[in-house]
Amino acid sequence: MSEDTKEEIYRPDLFVTDGSGTRLVGGCCKKCSYHTFPKYFACPNCFSDEIEDVLLNPIGKLHAFTIVRRSMPDYPVPYGLGLVDFPTNFPSAVRVMAQIESKDLENLQTETDMKIVIGAVRKNKDGGDIKSYKFARS
Amino acid sequence: MRDVYILGVGTTPCGRFPEKGAHILGREAAWAAIQDAEINPRDIEIVFCGHVYQGMGVGQRTLKEIGLVGQPVINVEGACGSGTLAFWESWRSIAYGQFDIALALGVENLSKVLSGGPLPLDEEDIEVALGMGMPALYAMRAQRYMQEYGVTSEQLAKVVVKSRKHAAMNPIAQYRKEITIEEVLDSPMIADPLTRNQCCPVGDASAAAVLCSGDLVKKLAKKQPVKVLGCVAQSGKYASAEKLTCDPSENVTRTSRLAYEMAGLGPEDMDLAEIHDAFSIAEMIVCEALGFCEKGAGFRLIDEERTSLGGDIVVNPSGGLLSRGHPVGATGLLQTAEIVWHLRGEAGDRQVEGANVGIIETMGGAQPAMDGITCVVSILGT
User: Which residues of chain B does A65 touch, with a Cβ-Cβ cutoff of 8 Å?
Assistant: First the structure.
């Protein structure tokens, strides 16, 4: 790995970090307030194209997970992968998939409260980390 | 809407054939289907060619090898459902009166694309970019399903044991050696709880079917024709956390209900099924979605051997995707050929006795927050 390897961020538009932590940026329909992640061009519920950015709830619940032990090139294994439901007022939750950051993947359990963190998700062609949003136990 | 019949089917074996391009595999299957139908190839008015990774003009590239030039050739892509989507296109082009004779073809040489591991997916898809492959997606489905319904790893493994047992009797299957529960579970873990033997292999093959209108079937049919009783294609809807678990059951349920309605039949009328068991867990989820049992009871069908040869609803007598193989674009037409052989009584040692009606289900692809990309369900009868 060369010294000038730069850290890359995948889709920095999908999350924001401030003093209180990291939150995912989804879409919310101005007409019917249906939430999605990521933001779509038109609302899946009412077809309005007036969609605004919305910060998803900082904490969601783990719906399902796996430990990936064989993967595509550039993805160091093993890593956790999960589906997390973030509560919204409409629909009841938005389900998001991402990697799980944990030193204790073997003991993951569904319904655990999960937060968003930033961490390495894969390698770039120079061997440097590409980082993005991940889940971690809250 | 007009009646549509299958006059003939043909396939190559399933396996690793890196030296045979898709067009070489494709010409063998297309020619075999034409020979089986005993028609003049020149009478084919339109061809639909399903594939995923075979590049520009693969249908035309294939058909020029057997003199089938000039007529329209439409290349069709619908992820793992590409083959049956080509079949659906062929069916509707005849059912709605535009053509009388069509060839549905599916081709794939995956060995030229990858040596092993998960299928290459589109990195514009954020979940793929973050590390989701198809095995990982099905692994999460399996994890949640096992927890919700109290299913064990041994029960998941039994799907593979049954699949290999069936495939051992199928001369075109990729994996023809029987296997034990222990061997399934002891193979390397790919994504917990799915071991390698619970994932379909990388493979190459082609399969084809010749379809014709009810108006011409008496004149053209040399063998017992097989009637298309129902044929429906749908795509996935938004999968919300509120309504769905992370499985493709809504899409399969919706598509199969429409196909049953078209056929005027129900799940209880099916004698056999060829379904999309890309991973062990998929067979349980799909059996439930097709209405063979209640939600969460799919593992009991396996435990009670109701889906094994000799059972009341035989599932994947070919060995399915897990053992016959899953050359993605060809899969749907391999499934179709298998059902046709059983309905004609030509399936050899694995023949389902007295098979009158069979169902084919193919499920393709994944998208963030969507319930699969493509689902095609066909019901065939004598």
Answer: 140, 143
Number of domains in chain A: 1
The ipTM assigned to this model is 0.94
Select from B174, B191, B226 the last residue of a domain. Answer: B226
Helix (H, G, I), strand (E, B) or coil at B182: helix
Annotated catalytic residue within B80, B212, B231, B293: B80
- What domain range is B314 assigned to? 126-199+228-381
Q: What's CA B263's distance to the chain center, in Å?
A: 19
DSSP strand pairing (B4-11 vs A129-137) = unpaired
Give domain status of residue A2, yes or no: no
Q: Work out the average pLDDT over A19-29.
A: 96
pLDDT value at position B43? 97
**Phi/psi of residue A122, each to 5°?**
-165, 175
pLDDT > 60? residue A2: no
Residues on chain A bordering chain B, Cβ-to-Cβ distance under 8 angstroms: 10-11, 14, 36-38, 44, 63-72, 75, 79, 81-83, 85, 91-95, 97-99, 110, 121-122, 132
The segments of chain B whose pLDDT lies below 70 read: 240-247
Determine the distance in angstroms separating the CA of A88 from the nearest CA of chain B, rounded to an integer.
11
| Residues within 8 A of A (CB atoms), B 127-186 only | 127, 129-133, 135-136, 139-144, 147
- Does residue B291 lie within any of the structural domains? yes
For residue B80, indicate whether it is catalytic.
Answer: yes
Q: Can you give the pTM of this predicted structure?
A: 0.95
Same domain as B343, residue B219: no
Residue B44 within a domain: yes
Residue A66 domain boundaries: 8-137
H helices of B200-248, in order, are: 214-220
Contacts of B302 (CB under 8 A, 6+ apart): B155, B158, B159, B162, B283, B284
B102, B163: one domain:
no
Q: Compare all CA atoms of chain A with the CA of B146 and give the residue at the minimum distance.
A: A64
Are residues B157 and B191 part of one domain? yes
**What average pLDDT does the structure give for chain A?**
93
Q: With an 8 Å Cβ cutoff, are A14 and B126 in contact?
A: yes
Q: How many domains does chain B have?
A: 2
| B187 reaches A (C-beta below 8 A) | no
Count Cα atoms within 13 angstroms, Cβ side, for B124: 0
- pLDDT above 90 covers a percentage of chain A that reads 87
Among all chains, which residue has been given the structure tokens 């993947």?
A105
Same domain? B133 vs B219: no
CATH number at residue B99: 3.40.47.10
* Segment A2-7 mean pLDDT: 58
B365 and B373 Cβ atoms separated by less than 8 Å:
yes
Whether pLDDT at A5 is above 70: no
Which one has a higher pLDDT value, A41 or B125? A41
- pLDDT exceeds 80 at position A3: no
The verdict on B163 and B260 lying in the same domain is yes
CB contact under 8 Å between B139 and A68, yes or no, is yes
